[in-house]
Design brief:
Blueprint: H1 3-12, H2 14-27, H3 33-38, E1 40-43, H4 48-68, H5 71-76, H6 93-108, H7 112-123, H8 125-146, H9 149-154, H10 157-176, H11 179-184, E2 193-195, E3 199-202, H12 204-216, H13 226-242
Parallel strand pairs: 1-3
Antiparallel strand pairs: 2-3
Length: about 240
C-alpha cells in the first residue's frame, strides 16, 4: 500500500484503522506497571505520511504569506515611474488597500470552519485537503493572470484580485483545518507495548508525556529518545502553532 493510500485510509476510514489496531493487539504484549517503570522507553518512528502532510502545510503557508505580504503596496500605490522606487499597481489608496488585506486575513481564518465541516461530514480529511489544494491553485492562477500589465491596463486587476482572494481563502480553509488532525491520525498505536529486547515502544506523543513525567521525578531520560522527541516537539510546539 502506498503512502498516499495510507494517509487516505487513516483520514477517512476509522473502522479499518480499528481493525488494524485489533490485529496488532493480538500479537503485541502490553507492559505491566513494573515494566513501565523499569524498562527503557523508545519512541515510535514518525510515519512518512506525517512528514508529507507537514510539507503540504508548509507549502500552503509559504504561498499564503508570500502573496499576502505585497497586497498593501500592490493595491495602494500606482505603477511606479522611471525614477519611482515605490512598488504598486492599482492606485486604490490606503483605505481600500487596508480594507482588502484585512478582509483577506479575516476570511482566510473563517473558512476553516467550512473545511472542517466538509471533512467531517462528507469527504474526509484527505480528500478535502486534496480538493482544497486544487481550489488554492485555481485562485493563484486567477491572481497571476489578472495582475499582469495587460490585465491592469484593461481594468480587470482589482476585480480579479477580489475573486482570487475569495478562492484562495476557501482553499486555505480546507487545508488549514485538516492537516493537523490528519497528521495525528497517522499514529494508529494508542497503547505502549513490549518490543524485542525488553524495550517499551509507544507513540512519539506518548513519549513526550513520559518525558514530562521523568522530569517531574527528576530522573534522566535516556538519550536514545532525544532525537525523535525533539522532532515531535519542533513540529507540535513550534511549526504547527505558527501555521
Amino acid at each position: 500500500m502506498s503512502t498516499l493510500e495510507d494517509i487516505e485510509l487513516n483520514g477517512s476510514s476509522v473502522d479499518k484503522v480499528k481493525i488494524s489496531e485489533q490485529k496488532e493487539d493480538i500479537n503485541e504484549i502490553e507492559p505491566t506497571v513494573e515494566e513501565l517503570a523499569t524498562l527503557e522507553h523508545v519512541s515510535e518512528r514518525i510515519p512518512l505520511g506525517a512528514w508529507l502532510i507537514v510539507c503540504c502545510e508548509l507549502c500552503e503557508r509559504f504561498a499564503f504569506y508570500g502573496l499576502a505580504a505585497p497586497f498593501q503596496n500592490y493595491i495602494q500605490y500606482p505603477i511606479p515611474g522611471p525614477g519611482d522606487k515605490q512598488p504598486g499597481a492599482l492606485n486604490r489608496g490606503q483605505r481600500t488597500a487596508t480594507s482588502v488585506t484585512t478582509f483577506f486575513q479575516f476570511f482566510a481564518y473563517l473558512t476553516p470552519i467550512a473545511g472542517a465541516i466538509l471533512a467531517d461530514q462528507y469527504w474526509g480529511k484527505y480528500k478535502t485537503i486534496l480538493l482544497a489544494c486544487v481550489v488554492y491553485m485555481v485562485g493563484l492562477l486567477v491572481l497571476v493572470v489578472t495582475s499582469i500589465p495587460p490585465s491592469i491596463n484593461a481594468g480587470v486587476a482589482f476585480p480579479g484580485l477580489i475573486v482570487a482572494i475569495i478562492i484562495i481563502s476557501f482553499g486555505t480553509g480546507g487545508v488549514k483545518s485538516n492537516v493537523s488532525p490528519l497528521m495525528a491520525e497517522q499514529y494508529t498505536r494508542t497503547k505502549p507495548i513490549v518490543r524485542g529486547n525488553q524495550k517499551i515502544l509507544s507513540s512519539t506523543k506518548s513519549n513526550v508525556l513520559s518525558l514530562c513525567s521523568y522530569r517531574r521525578q527528576k530522573e534522566d531520560y535516556r538519550p536514545e529518545n532525544v532525537s525523535s522527541l525533539s522532532i515531535y516537539l519542533v513540529i507540535d510546539r513550534i511549526v504547527l502553532p505558527v501555521f
